[in-house]
Amino acid sequence: MAPTWPAMEYAERSKPQGSASVRSHIAERANISMADITPNNVGQLHMLNAKLFPIVYVKELYKVQGEDVKPLCKLGLFNDIPVGDICCTLEDGPDETTWKIYIMTLGVLPSYRRLGIATALLNHVLENAPVGGMFAGRRVHALYLHVQTSNVAARAFYEKNGFVVSDKIEGYYSQLEPQSAWVLEKHT
Ligand code: ACO
Fold first, then answer.
1. Which of 15, 31, 62, 173 has its CA 20 to 30 A from that of 105?
2. Whole-prediction pTM value?
């Protein structure tokens, strides 16, 4: 005789109530955290950036990251899964007592956007290396980055976080279209 199976019971999925958006509903329940970039997970960083950016960042770029810059390079985790990253480099500021921090990459996989993950990654850098404050023995003069001029989302993101457009460089991305880049900076 064929076995009879107990009737399945499916709990009703809870849905966002009222005016709360689905994104904020997800964000409230997600655990967003960060991880150091180590020899064991640097491959994840390469894979994420290959998906996120039209430019291939050569592996050597990640090797330059010495101990000093460790707090400025992080994986962003959504419920422990790496879904984004920030990676900065240190450059001399106007003099040898200051730094300019260059945000080389900041990105989040499409499905995980608008959940505050990029904000968390950027805030982490700003908390460790506040503009006008000290980092690795020098005063932080500014943070800056380049954004392709077609990248409206990234510009909006940075402007929301207090960065201002300081320049437009024609031909900055020789292999992309458009080739032009905005320079966005955050000063004191
Ligand atoms: N359009 C308008 N405003 C936006 C957008 C967008 N698409 N995305 C973010 N913002 C603004 C909003 O004000 C948002 O707040 P809200 O969601 O409450 O409205 C705020 O920024 C914070 O957004 P987050 O959720 O923290 O940002 P997210 O995790 O979605 O990441 C990012 C933003 C990094 C720009 C993402 O869209 C991305 O990864 N894009 C592809 C990679 C990229 O372009 N990176 C930047 C290139 S420059 C560089 O790397 C140096």
1. 31
2. 0.89
